[in-house]
Design brief:
The complex is a heterodimer. Chain A is mostly helical. Chain A is built from one helix and no strands. In chain B, helix 4 crosses helix 17 and helix 7 runs antiparallel to helix 19. Classes of the chains: A mainly alpha, B mainly alpha.
Chain lengths: 37, 547
């Protein structure tokens, strides 16, 4: 099994993933809020 | 507390301290004491960042916050994942490219020594005091809850931290934080399980009830500036605060610079960007479940019972009548809830709030120095009263672990900054052996302990220290943003801009404290950072015109 070093990793994908996850969380929280208000 | 709980508590703390010393003490070089061992993995870095940030007050206050005001507080963390991405993409590679041991060392490479010393001094001043409060704040809560003298709880937390940070330095902090964070997560998981088991209704029904009672207003999209937590203040204010904290505060920078590889540091940071919001959601969720729990089981009228114990017999007699009304009204509220009559529930709930207010007014008038805020005691009261024997000790170990891990992170960062940024740069023949680093770490550990021990002598010290962080953070962040993104700005411009911006923020704070203006402390970070950038751009363009 080989491990990629830092320069071989496409960090942009990771960064986009973190921000997309945040957006998904905010949307979910927003929907929960709307459901009960 | 039961002897088994004391035994669990003592064993857990001894295990953490012993492990930290055992793993690191024999092979701690000066470098390892200062920045840690290079062979640490992503989990150690990631959990270390999380453990430094999550102090004991996080676990004590956050459920109480949700209990009283609902889950809207989570919006405060929305800016954090964005900040972590920016730190990972821009700040971290810049530090590593210059092989900096501290964030401030990078500034000497980019600007000059003056800028480095200025930012390091701002860090040492604010973090030095804050380290004391990280010990003091949980010590107050534990002393009240366990009915133990405040000096004892303060000394136990402080002395434990000093023992392993002095023996193993930053390397010991890295290994113990992983263990501490694991204990914290397991402990909080167990507490949640017990709470769910004790609930008279199912979890789904509990959340539905909480929603109808207004506790699940998580996202507030209004632009009302008087609302403290909104989606916008969370994204903007939270982004600036997290950027300052993760990008420029040595207690955080040290955690991820400690890793040998860029990949490990980045993964550790991104791990926090992914897990912080869900973790806070879970902790706030405990608060909401506690709220539902206390709709069925009668809560005390005031959670910090130690405060009432200080009252004279006359005042106590007066307070009893409110307690009786409270008991009667709670029975009515529970009956309304069982019938499913939410209108009646709301009406009784309002009456209970009024009774509590009357109780607090009488207590405030009759008990000298009465502390009205009891949110920090909500979760602890549940732990002490409803958790089985053995688990109470484990949960107290969680709180002490959190206090120790964040204080240890701060103390080692303070000694590293003192040595690397001041002693090594200003004193060419400075001693470099592990013994000297240990003396510095003991100095900061003892200083933090002294601040914690004298804190009760000053009113509102906790608030002052929290504000102090916001006062300095903005300026420090502004200097770093200028260093990274405004390549044409030189040392002189940024140094003058930092001094002017800091002066303006202090002036704003004086005006704010006197009531002349009304500004949330979070905004100091945004204004300070923007001022440094704007003023240094102005000075630089003025210089260019003059040339």
């Amino acid at each position: 099994m080989t491990f990629k070093n830092s320069s071989e990793i496409n960090w942009k994908k990771y960064y986009t993933g973190v921000i997309a996850l945040l957006a998904a969380q905010i949307i979910t929280f927003y929907l929960i809020t709307r459901q009960f208000v | 507390m039961h002897p088994i709980d004391w035994a669990v508590l003592a064993f857990t703390l001894a295990a953490i301290i012993g492990y930290g010393i055992w793993v690191t003490v024999r092979r701690s070089s000066s470098e390892e004491l200062l920045v840690g061992q290079k062979n640490v993995g992503m989990w150690t870095v990631g959990l270390g960042i999380m453990a430094t940030q999550a102090s004991a007050i996080t676990f004590l206050s956050t459920p109480g916050q949700a209990y009283t005001s609902g889950m809207g507080f989570i919006q405060f963390y929305f800016g954090m994942p964005i900040a972590v991405v920016l730190v990972s993409a821009y700040f971290l590679p810049a530090y590593r490219a210059r092989k900096a041991a501290t964030a401030y060392e990078f500034l000497e490479h980019r600007f000059d020594r003056r800028v480095r010393l200025l930012t390091a001094a701002l860090f040492l001043a604010s973090r030095g005091l804050a380290a004391g409060i990280t010990i003091y704040a949980p010590a107050i809560v534990l002393s009240a809850a366990l009915n133990a003298p405040l000096q004892w709880t303060t000394l136990i937390i402080g002395a434990a931290v000093i023992v392993y940070t002095v023996s193993g330095g930053s390397a010991a902090v890295a290994v113990t934080q992983k263990l501490q964070m694991t204990i914290i997560l397991v402990g909080m998981g167990v507490a949640t399980y017990i709470l769910i088991r004790e609930l008279p209704v199912g979890v789904g029904e509990a959340f539905e009830l909480a929603g109808h009672m207004g506790k699940l207003k998580i996202v507030d999209t209004s632009f009302d500036p008087s609302t403290r937590y909104t989606l916008w203040s969370g994204l903007a204010g939270g982004l600036f605060l997290s950027l300052s904290y993760f990008g420029t505060d040595q207690s955080q920078v040290q955690r991820y610079l400690g890793a040998g590889e860029l990949k490990t540091s980045r993964m550790g940071l991104l791990f926090n960007g992914v897990f912080k919001v869900p973790m806070q959601f879970a902790i706030l969720g405990i608060g909401v479940l506690l709220f539902v729990f206390y709709q069925f089981i009668q809560p005390p009228i005031f959670f910090n019972t130690a405060e009432e114990a200080r009252a004279s017999a006359e005042v106590k007699a007066e307070l009893v009548q409110y307690k009786d009304q409270w008991t009667q009204l709670h029975a009515e509220k529970k009956a309304a809830l069982v019938r499913g009559n939410l209108i009646a529930w709301r009406s009784v709930n309002d009456q209970m709030a009024e009774v509590r207010n009357n109780y607090l007014s009488v207590a405030e008038a009759g008990i000298p120095g009465f502390e009205r805020k009891d949110a920090d005691f909500v979760f602890l009261t549940f732990v002490l009263n409803y958790l089985p024997i053995g688990l109470v000790g484990l949960l107290l170990a969680v709180i002490l672990s959190a206090a120790m891990s964040s204080t240890a992170g701060e103390v080692t960062a303070l000694s590293t900054t003192t040595y690397v940024d001041y002693i090594r740069t200003l004193w060419s023949g400075a001693p470099s052996g592990p013994g000297f680093i240990r003396i510095l770490t003991s100095f900061w550990g003892i200083a933090a302990l002294i601040v914690a021990l004298v804190a009760p002598l000053f009113d509102n010290l906790i608030q002052l220290v929290n504000v102090l962080g916001s006062i300095f953070y903005g300026t420090i962040l502004g200097v770093f943003i200028t260093a990274l993104f405004f390549k044409k700005i030189g040392a002189k411009a940024v140094f003058l801009a930092a001094l002017l911006a800091q002066g303006t923020i202090v002036l704003l704070h004086v005006l704010n404290s006197s009531g002349a203006i009304s500004l949330g402390y979070l905004w100091y970070n945004v204004i300070g950072a923007i001022l440094v950038i704007a003023i240094s751009l102005l000075i630089q363009s003025w210089h260019r015109q003059k040339d």
